[in-house]
Amino acid sequence: MINDIKRISFKQILFFLVCVLVVEFLLLKHTPFFWDAVSKSGRASWIYAHGLSEFIVPTELNSGHPPLWVGLLAVFWTIFNKALWSSRLLLLLVNIAVVWQIIVLCKNNFLKTVSALAVFLVCLEPTFLAQTTNLNNDMLLLFFTLLALNSLIKSKSVLFTLALTGLLFTNLRGIYIVIAIAIIHVIYARFKLIEIKKPIYFGYLFAVLTFAVFCYFQYEKLGWFIISQNENYNEHRQSVGLKQILTNIVVYVKIFLEYGRFIIAIFLLPLLFKYLKDKTRKDVRIDRMIVAFFVFILVYFLGMVPFSNPFGDRYFMICYLLAIVLLVNLIAHYNVRKKIVIYTLIVFMFVTGHFWIYPATLSQSWDSSLAYLNIYNVEERMEHYINSRGIKPSDIGTRINLNSRDYSEFKMLAETDRYAQFNIETNKFILLSNIENQTKDEELNYVMTHWKLVKTHSQLGVFMSLYQKE
Description:
The chain is mainly α. It has helices at 2-6, 10-28, 37-49, 68-80, 84-109, 118-123, 126-131, 138-154, 157-170, 173-190, 202-222, 231-234, 242-255, 262-277, 284-304, 317-333, 339-352, 375-388, 405-408, 441-450; strands at residues 396-398, 420-421, 429-433, 452-459, 462-468.
């Protein structure tokens, strides 16, 4: 039986993972847009309402990110119907494409002694798993990132061109990724880690020129490009002082250790240090992963830490995946004893990572683990209680994103069903939850101390609590 397991191929694993993703789609096909994804739904709705005739979204809705993901959403709504299931059908296709590229990455870069089953370890990474359920553009960005890296390694110029162009049109972080890919390309070529083919350089030219054309048309229409003039987003594109940079550094390091990922660092760092010191036992597949891992970390660090834009765990998925591939290779390279124990610990930490819940006074990147899915049951129970007590939503102040259901769930709310803005002075009731990070600690503590707790609902650490002014 063990020999049969060892003979499992990458194609069989891909088939299994696709089946898992299809089941996930069926289970979550009516799950709403969450957190930052709600704003993407708003922009896609504008494109959809204009009959796909215009893809440059007006400034009042525009964060500066290019429109590929929101445009694809609008296209799918046009073809199938504007519904949650059609949105998730698009995500399913993107997820399958990402898993395909993960298989390619592992197949081309695992050492020969590494079993194809190690792919499962890569795909269990908590934030990656959470993003397969989230209707945001991060999975599409990850697909193009993996496609670019895989195409570079195999010198496939057409796919490489597609990947670079897709990166620039999916998200502004795609600019950082293209820069990182270019640096990786230079290092790979310098140390002969890949076969050099000149046609692949055309990809950079095509991607930059097409993106420049898009920026020109956006500037002609809106008067700006890349850096949004929308005041809600413009403040996130500012440079910060030394104190905030130091804070950002701490957050940057913390992100790489969250949701069980610290276990990767514990095993990876000593093996990596040993490999870098060892001048004799080198392997090109390990070298390629080391270069890619460190370049991405450095480019992201320089592109994000000095600026005011809050960054979340999902931004760095490519780094987590590369770290796992690198660790698996190093374990095989040095034939580390008790591999099963190590892999079991990693799986345990990755699974329990979805149960990491911080105290309500600490901000949490909720879309970076599956814990966020608990909010929907909690929300339903709380609203059932509110309705049963005859409490008007307009009497309840909250910062939970409950008034955006026209975009998150495609349900139009009557004015009587809309919640009031959070205001301790004027609200009769206040609805608190740890699912939002906007309420300040002093506000949270004041309400919990001086107001009467009417009702609370919770599930696996995610809570909503209704308070009444006394």
